[in-house]
Amino acid sequence: MSNEAGIATTAAEPAPETEPSPHGIGASLPHADARAKTEGTFPYAADLWAEGLLWAAVLRSPHAHARIVSIDTTHAREMPGVRAVVTHEDVPGTPRHGRGTPDRPVFASEVVRHHGEPIAAVAADHPDTARMAAAAVIVEYEVLDPVTDPEHAFEAEPLHPDGNLIRHIPLRHGDPEAVGEVVVEGLYRIGRQDPAPIGAEAGLAVPRPDGGVELYLASTDPHTDRNTAAACYGLPPDRVKIVVTGVPGATADREDQGFQLPLGLLALKTGCPVKLTATREESFLGHAHRHPTLLRYRHHADAEGKLVKVEAQILLDAGAYADTSADALAAAVSFACGPYVVPNAFIEGWAVRTNNPPSGHVRGEGALQVCAAYEAQMDKLAKKLALDPAELRLRNVLATGDVLPIGQTVTCPAPVAELLQAVRDFPLPALPKDAPVEEWLLPGGPEGAGEPGAVRRGVGYGLGMVHMLGAEGADEVSTATVKVHDGIATVLCAAVETGQGFTTLARQIVQETLGVEEVHVAPVDTDQPPAGAGCRGRHTWVSGGAVERAAKMVRAQLLQPLAHKFGMSTELLQITDGKITSYDGVLSTTVMEALEGKELWATAQCRPHPTEPLDAAGQGDAFVGLAFCAIRAVVDVDVELGSVRVVELAVAQDVGRVLNPAQLAARIEAGVTQGVGIALTENLRTPRGLIRHPDLTGYALPTALDAPDIRIVKLVEERDVVAPFGAKSVSAVPVVTAPAAIASAVRAATGRPVNRLPIRPQAAVVTDR
């Protein structure tokens, strides 16, 4: 790890005995698409073009809840340049779609359930014509009172044919009569965050001669999207193809299926290519957001601070449709006690439908919300027991071999104590008390109204955990093919590069295994075998594992003739720096010489060990693997204005194995910075279910001025033996942990409870100074 860009490494860790190869695992290869993105040649979906192109626009509901009385498309159809208008009547059958639970229609037909729900779509010769035609569709609504409070959803009339309750998980672990000597309680609220994807959400649909359609999208799960589209178009899956265009970046499911699906319908109806580029407002209205969550907690501890029992109620607002809410609830309930040993736990979790915008998969879903709550409870316990907050946590941390409240034994490395000690012992940043006033970096910015005399510094801690891969019986599998011809290797795998670095990792794996310098990763489409969604570290583990297995099979094909010729097994041969040598030095040749005139290939799958659903008591071996993180936050708070500046975040994380040091540092920094936004600025307001200010002016993302110094003080490389390469997911857990650490630091600075994220200024004001 370098010491650049605010990154610090611990001097206690010994340097490797040998420098890593300039290629292969352990090297800091740049992103494969870095140059194309910086030069502006990267193939984004918004840049696509086709001969005879039409432009699409979608009419969306202005109401959060309404009954549709009638839809009149006459005026829109008669407008010059309009080629087609589609509504629910043009969708064959009554298909439903959705990432996790397919429960939403392509177009609303009888009832509108959320602000922005698609009603109709238009294809026209010009984008402005398409938008005007969409606005010309006359919809008569009977406006209904929206259900926007998830607590009211239990008693409200059903908002959906499947009812308002999506899932209920009652977790029971240990003795319900157990009581601690010290008890603390808290009520916490986590707001709604938008994934705010980089770049416009866009797509192109092209009809095929066989009556099918090809969709060019920045999809993060192309095979699932293909199957969904085929069902909604009334076509067999082999008549629908998805080609993945360049994905600018994704911290959630990249593209909203609500505009993917109308594109194909319009292309099939017009017989022409149809393109849609969503505005930022349409993105806010269409795609899923983080679940707003209400959490009630009661922690019991003994006089020494050891946890005795945790009781909690967790309520997730799923919005109008289920999406991945069942999975998010499972994560929230399972991790409700955090990375701590809790002998007795009783958790009630619910996910309910409302008329708020839909919630779904966003990095760290479920785990982030409970982390903010259980870490607040640990701060309360420390204060009540007059213990140092870090010391209280150390007395309770989880370790390998301990049992989670769901009854699953932690078999993977869990160096939580080591992580916490690393950030606790890292030197604190210098206080600015000796600097001139004009050099102070005050909360609120250099032009703010803050005064140095009103600023207090606080130090807080956060411990977070996430699960990797799918859970509760999800069949995680990926397939990859490695081909070598003329000394050039090609990897075919439908794992989508979403910014997590998979294409770079695939190159490194093949370089390491075969000693081939030039490696290409083929573009992704659904003609390839499926690789699954790009989330929860899946592609590092499952797709990377498939690439490794295929590369090893090619390696065996390469070495077998040489081993046979010299009368030895392939295990006695090694590939290093592009050379093949035997253990005794008798054989020495280059990889390129051995490959001359040969074309080798192999296909392999990677499927981790199975998991099981949580049972009626919330028990089960639900997760393949876990990742942990500790963060110490240092903040300055202006206690008169309530403004907060994050001075420094010290991060320690268990990563299993560092595969690419530069990319790993970048992923951790990005996750921590995203956590700063969740803690302080990002709050998508939805009064009466209507998204207020659906733009990046009203929704405040953190900027470079908000980014603190990020010190990566320790990376624990204790390999997970069941994971390919022993590596763990690194992106989600700092996102989960950073908001809790920042809130803890604000509590330390102000003495206020800070029970809501993002932290509102009034929560950080101290009136009794």
From TrEMBL:
- Protein name from the UniProt record: Xanthine dehydrogenase family protein molybdopterin-binding subunit
Q: Where is this region: Disordered?
A: 1-29
Q: Which InterPro entries match?
A: Ald_Oxase/Xan_DH_a/b, Ald_Oxase/Xan_DH_a/b_sf, Ald_Oxase/xanthine_DH-like, AldOxase/xan_DH_MoCoBD1, AldOxase/xan_DH_MoCoBD2, AldOxase/xan_DH_Mopterin-bd_sf
Taxonomic source organism: Streptomyces cinerochromogenes
Domain Aldehyde oxidase/xanthine dehydrogenase a/b hammerhead, by residue range, is 39-145
Superkingdom is Bacteria
